[in-house]
Amino acid sequence: MAQQLTRNQSLVLDALTHAEGPLSAYTILDKLRDHGFRAPLQVYRALDKLLEFGMIHRLESMNSFVACSHPDHHHHDHGVTAFAICEDCGQVTEMHDAGIEERLSVLAGREHFKTEKTTIEIRGHCQNCTSG
Amino acid sequence: MAQQLTRNQSLVLDALTHAEGPLSAYTILDKLRDHGFRAPLQVYRALDKLLEFGMIHRLESMNSFVACSHPDHHHHDHGVTAFAICEDCGQVTEMHDAGIEERLSVLAGREHFKTEKTTIEIRGHCQNCTSG
DNA sequence: ATCAATTGCGTTATGCTATAACGTGTGGCA
DNA sequence: TGCCACACGTTATAGCATAACGCAATTGAT
């Protein structure tokens, strides 16, 4: 069941998995130069596939990428994802909530809008950075 | 009460108000060349102010901007905004829903996360483009 | 009135993000 | 064997955003 990844895809996924927070494509490129990466497209192509497989997420509000925090059940098993992004430490928390999905579904339905992909990103400050 | 805009800010706001859909900063620049605009910063500086005034919104998922559809009550009077973005015709619908705000508030609270700004963008197909 | 602080403006240069377009190599398979 | 699909590598280019500089106009306190 687990998707068989190519070498480039594995390298990019590893970089994201081991990172503290989200990484931009060019940051990934720099991290992988020692492994033979030389051009942005090598990263973007791998990212596209990993997104397709549901193994990583793209954070639209900061043009960067994170490994999915539910590595067990890939493939878009989980519905809408909301991200809490700390502007101080960069930490990203992945959240799921049926209530939100329900409300979004109602909103879209009211407009007769056919949803393909939903982005929810909350910018703010995480517990650690607030308590200090 | 209405914010007094500078010439550049007015021009940018007009461009967005009269546009069919969202515009990128560089598209705005091109539209305003006849009015003396020559550099991206002229656009970005105006956009920053208009965002600050709550007169326009930034669509993170497409790096572009739209005029707020509630021009009456500026200044962030309305809470969280969700955008339905049609991938066929580019039309953007602005939506508000207390239920979503409530759920997001609960989610954030559960993580002890202090929310500064929330982005909700739904990509898909609008009624017109679906029915055809 | 004047000085200082703020704000907007214009320009040049630069950096970051993403994709187009081309060709190569490999593995599966009729 | 010939075809197809796919991943890959490379070069070039397009699209998005900001840094850093200096000037001009405004405000507002003294």
Automatic annotation (TrEMBL), chains A, B:
Pfam families xref list: FUR (PF01475)
GO biological process, any: regulation of secondary metabolite biosynthetic process
Membrane spanning residue stretches: none
Binding note for cofactor: Binds 1 zinc ion per subunit. Binds 1 Mn(2+) or Fe(2+) ion per subunit.
Needed co-factor(s): Zn(2+); Mn(2+); Fe(2+)
Binding site for Zn(2+): C86, C89, C126, C129
GO molecular function, one term: transcription cis-regulatory region binding
GO cellular component terms listed in the entry, alphabetical order: cytosol
InterPro entries tied to this protein: FUR (IPR002481), Fur_C (IPR043135), WH-like_DNA-bd_sf (IPR036388), WH_DNA-bd_sf (IPR036390)
Domain of life from the UniProt record: Bacteria
Keyword Transcription: yes
Keyword terms of this UniProt record: DNA-binding, Iron, Metal-binding, Repressor, Transcription, Transcription regulation, Zinc
Binding positions (Fe cation): H75, D77, E101
Family stated for the protein in its record: Belongs to the Fur family.
Name the record gives this protein: Fur family zinc uptake transcriptional regulator
Organism: Rhizobium giardinii
